[in-house]
Amino acid sequence: MVLLTRRADFSASHFYYDDALSEAENVRLFGKCANRNGHGHNYTLEVTVAGAVDPVSGFVVDLKRLKEIIQQEVVAVYDHRHLNLEVPEFKTAMPTTENIAIAIWRRLENKIDGAKLTRVRVYEMPDLYADYCGEA
Ligand SMILES: [Zn+2]
Questions:
Q1: Which of 38, 86, 97, 115 could staple 51 via S-S, CB 3.0–4.6 A?
Q2: Is residue 33 annotated as a catalytic residue, yes or no?
Q3: Is 133 labeled as catalytic in the residue annotation?
Q4: Is residue 118 pLDDT above 90, yes or no?
């Protein structure tokens, strides 16, 4: 079995706010990330699949096809979007890096013919904001 990783990047905005909590509790828990106007990040995504190498093609999976699937299922939906307001799965789940990774897993699972989705890694880059969210 061979592991194969493909990287993709997208930019999106989000905020962390739980309506069940008070304003003060949201600020205590999420710091400046609780600002409902949102803020942006550049995200890096790594998708790892596992499978056997096809003896004819030499591929586990065609990287061009894997790129297309990631583009169609994730980048086209998340890139330059406000995750809280525009992406269905974050209407009910906080768009933390952890929940983004779970949502991406669900979007990609069973979509990659001939290989098994093995790992989804999401990095939140702080370019547009001084700190990583979660370090409030
Ligand atoms: Zn953030």
A1: 115
A2: yes
A3: no
A4: yes
